[in-house]
Amino acid sequence: KAGVTQTPRYLIKTRGQQVTLSCSPISGHRSVSWYQQTPGQGLQFLFEYFSETQRNKGNFPGRFSGRQFSNSRSEMNVSTLELGDSALYLCASSSYRDGYTFGSGTRLTVV
Amino acid sequence: KNEVEQSPQNLTAQEGEFITINCSYSVGISALHWLQQHPGGGIVSLFMLSSGKKKHGRLIATINIQEKHSSLHITASHPRDSAVYICAAKRSQETSGSRLTFGEGTQLTVNP
Question: Which of A11, A16, B23, B30 is the most buried (most CB within 10 A)?
Answer without folding.
Answer: B23
